[in-house]
Amino acid sequence: VGTETINTDIVTLTRFLTEEQAKHKEATGDFTLLCHALQFSFKSIAYFIRRATLINLTGLAGSSNTTGDDQKKLDIIGDDIFIAAMRSSGRVRVLVSEEQEKIISFDEHPDARYAVVCDPIDGSSNLDAGVSVGTIFGIFKLEEGATGTEADLLKPGTELVASGFTMYGASAMLVITMKGGSVNGFTLDNALGEFILSHPNMRCPQSRAIYSVNEGNSLYWEDPVKEYVNSLKYPTEGGKPYSARYIGSMVADAYRTLLYGGIFAYPADKKSAKGKLRILYECAPMALVFENAGGQAIDSHMRRMLEVVPEHIHDRSGIFLGSYNEVQKVIDIHKKYEK
Ligand code: P6P
Predict the structure, then answer these.
(1) Which ranges carry the Fructose-1-6-bisphosphatase class 1 C-terminal domain (predicted)?
(2) Cα separations (Å) of 303 from 105, 157, 173, 290, 306?
(3) 123 lines ligand 1 (CB under 6 A)
(4) Which of 43-52, 67-76, 154-163 is most confident?
């Protein structure tokens, strides 16, 4: 291979974060250190997921370790890794995890100014099937004087400082965006142990005839949702029907939608009046990514997802997100039902 084809100016996540920090003269470096702890947790989780498949399939290391502890489920391992990384960063005051009923306050770091919300391993029920699972995260900066109580965390996604998600597939992917910034994709080079910028400035296509929803819930859908989905499947103006793509793992469905375009929906319905997905660590972080990539994200009341305020840390919401024009179709159809 000629040397001219080898990229010797690789942008790692570490370099990207350093360059980002340099753009903000007032930056203390705390956010950068927090992101380094984040990326370490992603590398560790990626490692365990790769090994877990091997362990489960081949029984390597047996069902318990030398001290007789039960083999932890991956969600617990992922959660433990994430909590340890956030705690040891010394930059996080409080953490919300899908795996933890209550908030986790790091009282040993009373001056830390960041709050992190996360789903350490979203979609973990799909793990045995080899489906991509991932971590979804959001970062808030606490108000001056806030001590990181639950009330400090009931914020709209518009106050997110950054958010993103990872996808632990053949090679781990990380998609991250800062408030008012672009969306950047990084691929984990397992040999280097570095996330490499592979998808700079990701833009969600404005339209795409792909819809991603669990049609197994259609019995429970409200009329506007039924009319909307039927308009894609049985087009009246002579267009071709949309393609259906549903993986059942939010990070995988979201990543495909970000890359190819289309729409992902988990509507609130008669069975789940508030929807299934959690506002703080699934809907809001994803909504920030899609808005920063030129897409849209709304809830089942057609409100901008980023403006929805959770009533409690595990509060849920319906969500439609993806290509700007595809989400607009949902809004237009719902308008017909407004009283
Ligand atoms: P359903 C996975 O359990 C999850 O939380 C998301 O990752 C995914 O989008 C959704 O639930 C799938 O839910 O009801 O279609 O299986």
Answers:
(1) 205-334
(2) 31, 12, 30, 15, 8
(3) yes
(4) 154-163
According to DSSP, the residues that pair with 194 across neighbouring strands are 189
Burial of 71 (0-12, 13-18, 19+ CB in 10 A): middle
Contacts of 279 (CB under 8 A, 6+ apart): 157, 308, 310, 315, 316, 317
Expressed in angstroms and rounded, the spacing between residue 324 Cα and the centre of ligand 1 is 23
Tell whether the model's pLDDT for residue 61 goes beyond 60: no
User: Which amino acid residue places its CA nearest to atom 16 of ligand 1?
Assistant: 248
249 lines ligand 1 (CB under 6 A): yes
Measured in Å, residue 251 CA sits from the centre of ligand 1 at: 10
What's the whole-model pTM score? 0.94
Atom of ligand 1 nearest to the CA of 251: 7
Cα distance from N-terminal residue to C-terminal residue, the chain: 66
pLDDT in tens, 261-298: 999 999 999 999 999 999 999 999 999 999 999 999 99
Dist CA 110 CA 148 (whole Å): 9
The whole-angstrom separation of Cα 153 and Cα 52 is 33
- Read off the pLDDT band of 88 (50, 70, 90): very high
Q: What is the DSSP string of 204-271?
A: --S--SEEE--GGGGGG--HHHHHHHHHHHS-SSSPPPPEE---S-HHHHHHHHHHH--EEEE---SS
Q: Name the token pair of 73.
A: 């489920």
CA separation (Å) from 57 to 63, 78, 133, 176? 11, 19, 18, 32
Packing angle between helix 284-292 and helix 250-260, nearest 10 degrees?
A: 10
Q: 249: CA distance to ligand 1 center in Å?
A: 6
Short-list 86, 44, 92, 76, CA closest to 195: 44
Q: Which residue has a Cα nearest atom 13 of ligand 1?
A: 248
Ligand 1 atom index nearest CA of 123: 2
Of ligand 1's listed atoms, the one at least distance from the Cα of 248 is 12
250 C-beta closer than 6 A to ligand 1:
yes
